[in-house]
Amino acid sequence: MLHSLWILWALGAIISLSKGGSSDQASLSCDPMGVCDGHSRSLNSIPSGLTAAVKSLDLSNNEIVYVGNTDLQMCVNLKALILKSNEINRIDEDAFLPLGSLERLDLSYNYLSHLSSSWFRPLSSLQFLSLLGNVYKELGETSLFSHLTNLRVLRVGNVYTSKIEKKDFAGITFLEELEIDASNLQSYEPKSLKSIQNISHLILHMRQPILLPVTFVDLLNSLEYFELRDTDLHTFHFPELPVRETNPSIKKFTFRNVEITDESVNEVMTLFSYGSEFLELEFDDCTLNGIGNFDPSFMEKIKDPGKVETLIIRKLHIPQFYLFYDLSSIYALTGNVKKITIENSKVFLVPCSLSQHLKSLEYLDLSENLMVEEYLKNSACEGAWPSLQTLILRQNHLTSLEKTGETLLTLKNLTSLDISKNSFKSMPETCQWPEKMKYLNLSSTQIDSLTYCIPRTLDILDVSNNNLNLFSLILPQLKELYISRNKLKTLPDSTFLPMLLVMKISGNTINTFSKEQLESLQNLKTLEAGGNNFICSCEFLSLTQEQQALTQVLVDWPENYLCDSPSHVRGQRVQDTHLSVAECHRTALVSAVCCALLLFILLVVTLCYRFHGLWYMKMMWAWLQAKRKPKKAPNRDICYDAFVSYSERDSYWVENLMVQELENFDPPFKLCLHKRDFVPGKWIIDNIIDSIEKSHKTVFVLSENFVKSEWCKYELDFSHFRLFDENNDAAILILLEPIEKKAIPQRFCKLRKIMNTKTYLEWPNDEAQQQGFWLNLRTAIKS
């Protein structure tokens, strides 16, 4: 029993291990280029079975705790290894030994409490290294990065990092980007960053700015772009630095998520004064706890206040904005500013006096603010922004195109205007705009029609994402038209846009476009028309699939061109759709079928005429009528001795000879003649059938005239039906005159057959023989 349990346990363990191995492989998805994705798969170790084919390995957001010597030993061609956001707390000394080709290594946001230089020594090709967000307090006992001669991006530090020393960055001479999380930095050894001769971009997280001045001194001669994050500058004081010359290399300062006061603004301006070529200043998601009461004396500390050309402010929060000053104290700093961006900062007014001081301003972006026409008029007062060329008022509170245009008439040099995402809804018939306007953006403004409020001088017009169903403006200079996500059903008329080079009209309700439409847009170089409801007709498919030049113009071809109909190809790419010959040549097919049908009808008519088909159809109908009646009438219904079938042209012989001879005989014979005995008003066919059925015999008076008579033919056929259906001898043939069998028409096939199978009486011209004829006839009728 114990032996059996042991075997079962062993088998279960083997199966469990095999499942675990396959799970590791299933947790990764690799493409043919060797890029493997295993992020967010709840892995607790590096998957086994990795080979030299793996070029990129993403294992972020898992539960890996350990990297061993053998985990990556086969990944000799690995270029990128992403292990961020795991639970790694230990890495073997030689874990990265095979990774000589590795260019990117991300170990951020793990639980590494100790960093070893032996990890990085084999990584001679490494260009990117991130060690952010771990729990180490210092960057190793010796220099970690001295062997990384190709390193260009380095990110280090965490909330536990308390000191920075000279050895930490020893051996590094150039970095494109250096990010240091020194949120709780307690000590900084002077010249720790000075060893790095050139830093393009430094990102410094520093909660308290106590050590900022001494850090900044080491960067004066090496830094181009300084970014300060997550800092509280309420009590910031920038002392006089022990340097006499300014640094010409610093070009840009950025403050991201920084709190500042009126007083600390003065200190920050002192910081700027050490950048003699300082050109750009950016505040992103910052808070100003003040009312703009800046000390004018700080201006004296700035050696050259007119160097700044670009000012960017995004999401600036001013709790006491309702008490804010008019900023007149900083007017002197605005003389050379060429570009200002103030986004999402609740700006509702730019004072006229400030606008007039911005004499060099060429670009102004006031997006996502609270501007309305009344306050815009004050901002764009006479003499305001005299050099302004580009104005962006996207997503404000403008509602009138007419008032907006009139307000901006003071901007004589304005060429580009973006007033998208405002609620204009309607457009007046005419508007006034600055004379040099070349670009106008009216996208997402809820307009449903276009009028000649649009300036005719435009080179570029953007009316995307509106409710337009027609474009009929004549814009002779327009070169680019953006009209996507509207309700247009056709391409705009080319005669209205003779100079058009670029048109983006995707996301409308266009069903098709023709070769003529495209050829009329002679200058068109770029067309983006995907995302429409294309009817994949044969003409449209031929146009798009056979003209290679067209696909070079269609920038979003073929991914965004899908068929909407016919239903059986809906959702297919236009490029891959093929219709059957019947669908592509439906008109020709219908025409061919109609022609064939017409020819068939003509053939049938001809055959019917040639072979008396109409006559046979009539006969068939009469025969069907006859078949519905009883085959033989009872004896009590026999009313006549004989029904006489004859041609009207032989009536003299029948009525004056035959009738007189038989009906005046003793005993007399009772004959049925159509002239005398047919029921008036009754269908003639029914009369014929009834007369034959009520007669003991049927006498046919045959002659050339009989053969030519249709009704005689009916009477002959009905008698023939009776003859064969009832197996009797009811027919009596009288040959009034000789008839050649060849002269009998083909349709009298029954007559030919009867004459071949039955004897008949011939009317003699000799009077001596006529009595014998009558005797034989009377005998035949009585039989």
From TrEMBL:
Q: Which Pfam families match?
A: LRR_8, LRRCT, TIR
Major location, coarse class?
A: membrane
Gene Ontology CC terms, in alphabetical order: cell surface; cytosol; Golgi apparatus; membrane raft; nucleoplasm; phagocytic vesicle membrane; Toll-like receptor 1-Toll-like receptor 2 protein complex; Toll-like receptor 2-Toll-like receptor 6 protein complex
Q: Where are the transmembrane segments?
A: 588-611
Q: Which InterPro entries match?
A: Cys-rich_flank_reg_C (IPR000483), Leu-rich_rpt (IPR001611), Leu-rich_rpt_typical-subtyp (IPR003591), LRR_dom_sf (IPR032675), TIR_dom (IPR000157), Toll-like_receptor (IPR017241), Toll_tir_struct_dom_sf (IPR035897)
The UniProt record lists the TIR domain at: 638-781
Membrane topology, as annotated, equals: Single-pass type I membrane protein
Belongs to which family? Answer: Belongs to the Toll-like receptor family.
Could you tell me what this protein does?
A: Cooperates with LY96 to mediate the innate immune response to bacterial lipoproteins and other microbial cell wall components. Cooperates with TLR1 or TLR6 to mediate the innate immune response to bacterial lipoproteins or lipopeptides. Acts via MYD88 and TRAF6, leading to NF-kappa-B activation, cytokine secretion and the inflammatory response.
Q: How is this protein named in the record?
A: Toll-like receptor 2
Species in which this protein is naturally found: Loxodonta africana (African elephant)
Gene of this entry = TLR2
